Amino acid sequence: MTLAPVLLSAADAATYAGVRPATLRVWRHRYGLTRWGTAEGNLYDLDELAAILARRVGDTEAAAVPV
C-alpha cells in the first residue's frame, strides 16, 4: 500500500524551506520535483522538499570543510 504524499501550498512550502516561492519553481526544474497542480496553484511534496534541503545542507557542509 502506497501512502499519499503530504502536500504543501507554495506559500507553506516556501516558509518550510526558508526560501521564496520563486525559488521553489527553480528547484522543481533543477531537482525534478513532482508537479502537483490544482486550481488553487502548485503544491509541493513535503518528503521531496526535506530530501532537497538535506542534500543542500550536506553540500554546504562539505564546501565548508577545510582541506
* Oligomer designation: single chain
Shape: globular
Q: Percent of residues in helical segments? A: 55-70%
Largest beta sheet, briefly? 3 strands, antiparallel
Average pLDDT works out at 87
Order of helices and strands: EHHEEH
Give a brief outline of the structure.
The protein is of the alpha+beta class. It is built from three helices and three strands.
Task: Provide keyphrases for this structure.
single chain; 67 residues; alpha+beta; 3 strands; 55% helix
Describe this structure in words.
The protein has 67 residues and is of the alpha+beta class. Helix content is 55%, strand content 16%. The chain is built from three helices and three strands; from the N terminus they run βααββα. It has helices spanning 10-17, 21-30, 46-64, and strands at residues 7-9, 36-38, 41-45. It has a three-stranded antiparallel sheet. The longest helix is centred in the last third of the chain and has 19 residues, at 46-64. It is globular, with a radius of gyration of 14 Å. The mean pLDDT is 87.
